[in-house]
Design goal:
Layout (H helix, E strand, L loop, with lengths): L9 H4 L15 H34 L17 H28 L8 E3 L2 E2 L7 E8 L2 E6 L4 E4 L1 E5 L4 E7 L4 E5 L3 E6 L5 E5 L5 E7 L11 E7 L1 H12 L4 E2 L1 H7 L9 E3 L1 E2 L3 H6 L10 H9 L5 H7 L6 H5 L17 H23 L3 H6 L40
Parallel strand pairs: 3-7, 6-12, 13-15
Antiparallel strand pairs: 1-2, 3-4, 4-5, 5-14, 7-10, 8-9, 8-11, 11-12
Helix pairs in contact: 2-3
Length: about 400
């Protein structure tokens, strides 16, 4: 009966034809080239693996205990011909694997623009790639089409045989953008932009998903990808434009909040510059963009007022992903301080936030960014931050009278 138990699994084999090995039968040229690279690598390795496995079985059978005719040579220790085979074959395999890996790494670089749409079919000179801006949210995907001024959530479409150029980023945590039928996966990271060039060659309905764990709703972070002919794609764009909703910054901030199993959403219009704001982490009103901050730092910074200008503009992932573990406010580790010290620190933090809010209302955003919050030597600071007690923006005294001693300043 034990020998017959494996036969009970045979009915399950009937279900295997229903499995779709999309990685081995993709619909895009880039994915097909990646498939070929995988197949050739496996075939080259099998040149060594199959003979080795066959010899294991052969030697085990030939030199079994019951075979009294097997030749026994305890003094044999070297064979030049055998050594050549043992070392030459793996060396040639490694050389071949290195060659196809090096060429594939450059030809299939996701940042490299396509030079063909299919095997033997070059890209026409008058065809512009379809640009799609991708934002990985918690836990859904946002796709923006700058050429058409539309956006979708959890639905992506592209015309057949037209190159696609993806610009990919994330709102909060690292994710991975992956459509197996189209191309390989590429990471989506907050504050960074990755790119992917691909093309779909066969019409159909395909599935895309996140291939990098990113939290509770990760398993439902999937979307539909439609490969359409040009007429079908134009009709799909018209259907998106027929929706009455628009995607402005306020709508995006609401969409950015964590949510699971989000249905397909269409936006007939998109706020210009929204993707750049997401990439630079400055969608919120009044928040300094990373690009502006880096430009200021490149020029030497703004001195003390830079701290004042950038303090409330620090990216806070808890604001994007919901409440922190210990609440939305500041938290303290009680193991390294007494309850009285923790209470005093909380009071001080609340006081600093109030002072900072008051300070921010006394100068315009342009003054904060351009460094106008500082006073020139011998003048009084325009924002009069001394009244707030802010330590790094104290009032600078005016010149002392001729008969009075010079004032000292720390």
């Amino acid at each position: 009966m034990r020998r017959l138990r494996p036969l009970l699994l045979l009915p399950l084999l009937a279900l295997l034809p229903g499995c779709e090995a999309v990685v081995l039968s993709p619909a895009g040229d880039i994915a097909a080239q990646q498939r070929d690279l995988l197949v050739w690598s496996v075939v080259l390795m099998l040149i060594i693996v199959i003979p080795v496995m066959a010899m294991v079985i052969f030697f085990a059978w030939k030199y079994r205990e019951s075979n009294k005719e097997a030749r026994y040579e305890p003094d044999w220790d070297h064979s030049t011909h055998l050594e050549l085979v043992i070392w030459a074959a793996p060396l040639l395999i490694i050389i071949c694997l290195g060659a196809i890996t090096w060429s594939g790494t450059h030809l299939l670089d996701p940042y490299r623009p396509l030079d063909r749409v299919n095997r033997g079919q070059a890209i026409a000179a008058d065809i512009e790639p379809l640009q799609v801006n991708v934002v990985a949210l918690d836990w859904k995907w946002l796709f923006i089409y700058p050429e058409y001024g539309i956006a979708t959530v959890n639905e992506l479409a592209a015309p057949v045989d037209r190159p696609i150029r993806f610009h990919i980023t994330s709102s909060g945590v690292m994710n991975s953008f992956y459509i197996p039928a189209l191309a390989g996966q590429i990471y989506a990271m907050p504050g960074m932009e990755t790119k992917l060039h691909a093309v779909i060659n066969h019409p159909g309905e395909y599935v895309g998903f996140s291939a990098n764990y990113s939290g509770d709703g990760f398993s439902n972070m999937r979307f539909a990808f439609h490969g359409l002919d040009q007429a079908g794609f134009d009709q799909w764009v018209a259907g998106v434009r027929a929706d009455s909703k628009g995607l402005d910054r306020e709508t995006y901030l609401e969409l950015e909040k964590p949510s699971e199993k989000v249905p397909v959403l269409h936006y007939a219009s998109v706020d210009e510059g929204l993707f750049d704001a997401v990439l630079n982490m400055c969608v919120e009103p009044g928040k300094m963009c990373m690009g502006e901050m880096m430009a200021i730092d490149k020029k030497g910074g703004l001195g003390l007022t830079a701290v004042h200008a950038t303090w409330p503009l620090v990216h806070d992932k808890y604001a994007r992903r919901g409440e922190a573990v210990l609440g939305s406010g500041e938290s303290y580790v009680m193991a390294v301080c007494t309850p009285l010290e923790a209470e005093k620190a909380a009071v001080d933090a609340a006081r600093r936030r109030q002072e900072l809010a008051l300070q921010m209302t006394r100068s315009t955003p342009s003054e904060q960014i351009m460094g106008m919050g500082l006073a020139r030597p011998g003048q009084v600071a325009r924002t009069e931050v001394a009244a707030t007690g802010w330590p790094f923006a104290s009032r600078i005294p005016a010149p002392a009278a001729a008969d009075a001693p010079a004032a000292s300043q720390s």
